[in-house]
Amino acid sequence: MTVNADPAELAKFSELAHRWWDPESEFRPLHDINPLRLEWIDAQCPLAGRRVLDVGCGGGILADSMARKGASVLGIDLAAKALKVAQLHALEAQTPGIEYREISVEALAAEAPASFDAVTCMEMLEHVPDPASAVRACAALVKPGGWVFFSTINRNAKAFLFAIVGAEYVLGLLPRGTHEYLKFIRPSELASHCRAAGLGLSQMRGLEYNPLTRRYKLSGDTSVNYLLAARKA
Predict the structure, then answer these.
(1) Which of 57, 90, 114, 208 is the most buried (most CB within 10 A)?
(2) How many other CB atoms are found less than 10 A from the CB of residue 188?
């Protein structure tokens, strides 16, 4: 099986792995948005007692918080250094109900289909060569009636200005080169991938950043960052 991953992307995040849990590091945006996305997920699919998969978990920021909500969480990623950081943090913080594996989502889908109550795939689709393949694998991994949650970046002029020029070059919220514009995904494209994979769309929300207050909020504006919730029939 050809692995659906870009070696350059994996290397990029591996180089920064030791900084995942520093809230003032390059990963500050992930720390800042995590409470918003956690509550959004939990509001639609209460996490306590659920078996949850976090795809592209990186250093484990979302996976750890979902476990603390009472979920049994498996985090998967192909960036080995980031996974080691996630595992070390779970040990140090004594996070209950969490484990990590270095495996692709497609390989896990072949190994353990329909095994999870919910699957999260946040800030990952814009970093893989074939996002539709990742969506299909996420759909295969969730049980009938289960939830799949995605977040990614829209592809338009405003998204280029805000997510690349603004976030990477002007405000310095992210390292330069974090994102490639042509890998951004329009909501219509992601919705189409979901439908083709047997997922019914439930909700879409935008994620906005105010550079003056340095705060994020969920909104109806999906023109830049957005989250999509889908459910398997």
Answers:
(1) 57
(2) 9
Pairing of strands 225-232, 142-153: antiparallel
pTM over 0.85: yes
Indicate the domain borders of the chain: 7-232
Answer yes or no: is 77 a known binding residue. yes
Task: Report the percent of the chain where pLDDT is more than 90.
Answer: 83
The CA–CA distances, whole Å, from 205 to 101, 153, 211, 226, 227 equal: 29, 12, 20, 6, 5
- Say which residues have a Cβ less than 8 Å from residue 109's Cβ, sequence separation at least 6: 136, 137, 138, 140, 141
Q: Is 59 annotated as contributing to ligand binding?
A: no
Q: Is 149:47 a contact under the CB 8 Å cutoff?
A: no
pLDDT band at 1 (very low <50, low <70, confident <90, very high): low
Closest C-alpha to 104, from 227, 199, 231, 10: 10
Exposure string of 144-177, with b = 16+ CB inside 10 Å and e = fewer, is eebbbbbbbbbbeeebbebbbebbbeeeebbeee
The response to whether 37 counts as a known ligand-binding position is yes
CATH (residue range 7-232): 3.40.50.150
Q: Is 101 annotated as a binding residue?
A: no
Kindly report which listed range (48-52, 118-122, 174-178, 197-201) carries the lowest average pLDDT score.
174-178
